[in-house]
Amino acid sequence: MESLMDLRDFELSPKDRSIEALAKWRSAVRLVKNPRRRFRWVADLVKRKHAEEKCRKLQGKIRAIIYAERAALQFMDVIGPAEYKVSEKTREAGFGIEPDDIALLVRGHDYKKYKKIGQVEGIIEKLGASVEDGVGGDSIDTRQEIYGVNRYTEKPSKSFLMFVWEALHDLTLIILMVCAIVSIAIGLPTEGWPKGIYDGLGIILSIFLVVIVTAISDYQQSLQFRDLDKEKKKIFVQVTRDRKRQKVLIYDLVVGDIVHLSTGDQVPADGIYISGYSLIIDESSLTGESEPVDIDEKRPFLLSGTKVQDGQGKMIVTTVGMRTEWGKLMETLSEGGQDETPLQVKLNGVATVIGKIGLAFSVLTFLVLTIRFVVEKAVSGDFASWSSNDALKLLDYFAIAVTIIVVAIPEGLPLAVTLSLAFAMKKLMKDKALVRHLSACETMGSATCICTDKTGTLTTNHMVVNKIWICGKIVEIKGKESVDKLKTEIPEEVLSILLRAIFQNTSSEVVKDKDGNTTILGTPTESALLEFGLLSGGDFDVQRATYKILKVEPFNSVRKKMSVLVGLPDGGAQAFCKGASEIVLKLCNKVIDPNGTVVDLSDDQAKNVSDTINGLASEALRTLCLAVKDVNEPLGETSIPEDSYTLIAIVGIKDPVRPGVKEAVQSCLAAGITVRMVTGDNINTARAIAKECGILTEDGVAIEGPEFRDLSPEQMKSIIPRIQVMARSLPLDKHTLVTRLRNMLGEVVAVTGDGTNDAPALHESDIGLAMGIAGTEVAKENADVIIMDDNFTTIVNVARWGRAIYINIQKFVQFQLTVNIVALIINFVSACITGSAPLTAVQLLWVNLIMDTLGALALATEPPSDGLMLRPPVGRTTNFITKSMWRNIFGQSLYQLIVLAVLTFDGKRLLRINGSDSTIVLNTLIFNSFVFCQVFNEINSRDIEKINIFKGMFESWIFFTVVFSTVAFQVLIVEFLGTFASTVPLSWQFWVLSVVIGAISMPIAALLKCIPVEKGDSTKHHDGYEPLPSGPELA
């Protein structure tokens, strides 16, 4: 059936859409009642194009400023720099430079003025800051007053009245308002006050109700999206303030703050480099230049919005907010909105096709009613005389035709997707999942594979040193007693060199708060080592004060090691290296023996060490090698050595599996989602953890990155389906695996990532999942969803909600199409046969409200059920409207049409309705029965396949509230608002009859679900339901 709709113009890929594809479906949408509302959550391509042009111009301007400033350096040398004039206000606040002057100096990379001002020391002095102490908390307000806040200008959010105004732009409602005004204008002179205004006022009140309910629903959605947007923009940075290193929100950053930068961070404001190691900055987001920039004392300028590609460092903030070029750029980029989702586009297509059918029915209904009326006048000989009553009659016909369009064009279909997404994203945000791209919610429901990291996602990321191999023996660490025992078993010189290796070769810090409590700031692995070092009697501050760090090679996922060169007090130097055990072991040619003596590392000893590493890894311990080398070359010329190290120790770090992970993995497998672990750890560690989590099965394959890299495409194709663990992998291996899974095997792939180098894999995947705690800003920026608690169980929850969104929209579509078909056919057939429509304009507007906004609220916001994760994922090419849905739609429509047709054409005789008001009583009964059919069909639509549609109904308070409100307002309309709604109060017998007619649809729905659909449809069911049992099993 869906193929008959021809939705080819409404196909959209979940990611990387071209402007042409986005423009194509927009041009295919021909029939829209309210473009402002329909396209509110759709990207504005014109604004986006203008924003991109402005962005390019701004990038060009930034490049030009930098180049021009550099070219003018010689000239500046000749004339000498102008003295900075400081205003009285700035001087009284304790600062020595104006905000615009410092902003221009940094933005223009003006190195000559920078030198004249006293370089970084001069700037720190003029900004009243301190490298060691940072800024004082009591100066924050003053700094924000003088130098501004770190925020960029954003468009003000819409008020509730704006949503009311937009809802009033519905073309059909405008036409009905005109009809209502004309009806009042004609009715008052002919029928007098107040009777002459009833029909017109009824339409106006109905329009008012539709507009208010629609505006409230849309406004609530906008608030949810606003909350989500605020959450997305929360970025925390490490600063030194009040002599303490602490995390602050990027918006709370002030000029003078000392910021600590590391790989993957976003530079939070313009600033000057103070100190660091191997700091490389990617400025492409700001300047458009792809070449990374080395930052050091000679090139100290850091610009807001750029990314730390490698290394680490400290900077002082000099410019914030709209004084930075990034602030101006972000103001520009906020134009254009977010891309629409594939489901929104597809349902726009369905709405367009149904709308065309509805328009045809509307025109035909008006023509049939008008022709019948004219023919009847001609036959009765009154054709020559026309009265105001005749005009009202024709106006009423026109209003009915327009109202049929209101009902026929399912404007709520694409908007229901937005409503469902907004609801799901708010719930997910509470459950620690932050959705950055709307389409990710939908796509996650189709995921067939999750490629997950191990550390922090499957494990707790709370690491402790569990075992250590040193001087040829393994010692288990179980607190202070075991550490004291270790100290007695190894020579003092070996302990000294071990502590030096721990405290010097680290990117973390040990800090003390005002109460003297010790806190370790850094990665969990580094923290575990430092904690062990402190437990062993080491002192971080004394170590750092005694030895001077000369060079650093920071850890990254490619090198898998960290190295430092340290200057000794006597003038010599030592290099320390730590990292992945196999990699560091290959760099060693010596080892410390049980006597504390450095001896050559023989092949047999190397094999024993390797066996030790594998033994620790098999116990699910993460292993690290620590090594040292004495350096004799002159310090100015030497680099950090790459070989001939002495092996000090192997550390086994325990990182327990998170509670609930095993159950979450089992849930994925039951749902047809394959879980693959991709980790940089040792293969034995990875195997042990994977078995504990239930990821690695007997027929599964565990492979190492280097081995995977060497496979041919044909070998990859055959082995990838069985790969469950990939160890010692590089980010490139993860990217290759994702690409092959998607392109070779057609999988829908979700990928987790936390490092800067994971960005390509996150971008390539169907759903990129960045870690909120361990993840870098670069990884988060390339992700679709941020897992705030780094927990695998949260990822599974995102998949559950993805499936819930998909099936909720299916339920709503099934419900709405049923109402569409019945309302169209009953009014058209009745118009053709009797010359009048049983449902008036006011009644149809109420029905439209039930099936549109209220129906979407009830069905599109249902929480996910447990059964959703017991069935296969949604296929990429599966029809959205399934055969089961068409079966339910046609079955319910047929029942309703038969009942309403019998009432319309023979209701008076069957129910013995007599008297002058018999027609209006019958029409009220038809209207009432029709509404109750929709109420019960709304309940039926809660489950497309299963007979028990009451499960969980009372847990969904929104659904229950909508159904209760609909029934209550229906009673109000029929019993008390008949003057405006063309109804009369009904007897209790007719009320019971109306409810019974509606309720009969429930056993009919159960019978319909027993009708089998094609096997091909049920075996690949994507709405989460298993095929129904047959025979005795049905009970």
Detail the topology: elements first, then pairings:
Blueprint: H1 2-5, H2 19-28, H3 35-38, H4 45-71, H5 73-79, H6 88-92, H7 99-107, H8 111-116, H9 119-126, H10 140-147, H11 160-167, H12 171-191, H13 198-232, E1 236-241, E2 244-249, E3 258-262, E4 270-282, H14 284-287, E5 293-294, E6 301-302, E7 307-319, H15 325-333, H16 342-379, H17 388-408, H18 412-430, E8 433-435, H19 438-444, E9 449-452, E10 464-470, E11 473-476, H20 480-489, H21 492-504, E12 509-512, E13 518-521, H22 524-535, H23 540-546, E14 548-553, E15 561-567, E16 573-580, H24 581-586, E17 588-592, E18 598-600, H25 603-618, E19 621-631, E20 645-654, H26 661-670, E21 674-678, H27 683-693, E22 701-704, H28 705-709, H29 713-719, E23 723-727, H30 731-743, E24 749-753, H31 759-764, E25 767-771, H32 777-781, E26 785-787, H33 792-834, H34 841-859, H35 883-911, H36 918-940, H37 957-976, H38 978-981, H39 988-999, H40 1001-1009, H41 1015-1019
Parallel strand pairs: 9-21, 9-24, 17-20, 21-23, 22-23, 24-25, 25-26
Antiparallel strand pairs: 1-2, 1-3, 3-7, 4-5, 4-6, 4-7, 8-26, 10-11, 10-20, 12-13, 14-15, 15-16, 16-19, 17-18, 19-20
Helix pairs in contact: 4-15, 11-13, 12-13, 12-17, 13-18, 13-34, 16-17, 16-18, 16-33, 17-34, 18-33, 18-34, 19-33, 25-27, 33-34, 33-35, 34-36, 34-37, 35-36, 35-40, 36-37, 36-39
